[in-house]
Design a protein that fits this description.
Layout lengths: L1 E11 L2 E11 L4 E5 L6 H9 L6 E7 L11 E4 L11 H12 L4 H7 L15 H14 L4 E5 L7 H16 L3 E5 L10 E4 L5
Parallel strand pairs: 3-7, 3-8, 5-6, 6-7
Antiparallel strand pairs: 1-2, 1-4
Helix pairs in contact: 2-4, 3-4
Length: 199
């Protein structure tokens, strides 16, 4: 599959973040999305995920199943981890497996070294552990496109290595990934896109 973003514009709170934005991303490619806070990195990821609509332009995933939206082919890992604090680590993954149509809970636990925390209440997890739980959804259910918003936030060096390995394996299988980041994520991106903050 191939992502095509053509001449999109985005407004937030009545302010134009960007306009005329176009880029493409092919199988096995990682795009690094950079720019200052407020430039629209998170908003762009939300547009691709289908959580908001652009003011103009189009976003298409060529080769997608036509009964599914672009967002339904994507995983979005945002600042908020989307974790149910009243559930255990395993129960959170079971919830997401049911919601997303089935997945390999064992593989998800292994992917970010969560096995020993499987029965641990999510509300007692550290910030880094919560981030690892959120990221484990990437390995729970297959999605062709990963949209990652500051994915290394709260991760120690070992967990950052696990994330880089997971992204690398995803790309090797022909997946696509976009990472909004202020720093390195352990992989050299194939493409880069820098957003400037408008006055």
């Amino acid at each position: 599959m191939e992502l095509r973003v053509d001449e999109i514009a985005c407004e937030r709170g009545g302010r134009l973040l960007f306009s005329g934005l176009s880029f493409g991303l092919g199988p096995g490619e990682l795009l690094a999305l950079t720019g200052p806070n407020g430039a629209g990195k998170t908003s762009l990821l939300r547009l691709i995920a289908g959580l908001a609509e652009p003011q103009s332009g189009t976003i298409e995933l060529e080769g997608r199943h036509q009964d599914l939206t672009v967002g339904q082919h994507s995983h979005l890992i945002a600042h908020r981890e989307a974790i149910k604090l009243g559930l255990t680590v395993r129960e959170n993954l079971e919830f997401w497996s049911d919601y997303l149509g089935g997945g390999d809970i064992g593989a998800a636990l292994v992917s970010f070294d969560l096995g020993s925390l499987a029965d641990y209440p999510a509300q007692l997890l550290s910030a880094g552990q919560r981030r690892r739980l959120a990221l484990s959804r990437l390995c729970l259910v297959k999605r062709v496109m990963w949209l990652l918003d500051e994915p290394t936030t709260g991760l120690d060096a070992r967990s950052q290595d696990r994330l880089a390995s997971a992204i690398g394996a995803h790309l090797a299988e022909g997946g696509l990934a976009i990472a909004a980041t202020h720093g390195a994520i352990g992989l050299e991106p194939h493409r880069k896109l820098h957003l400037e903050q408008r006055p």
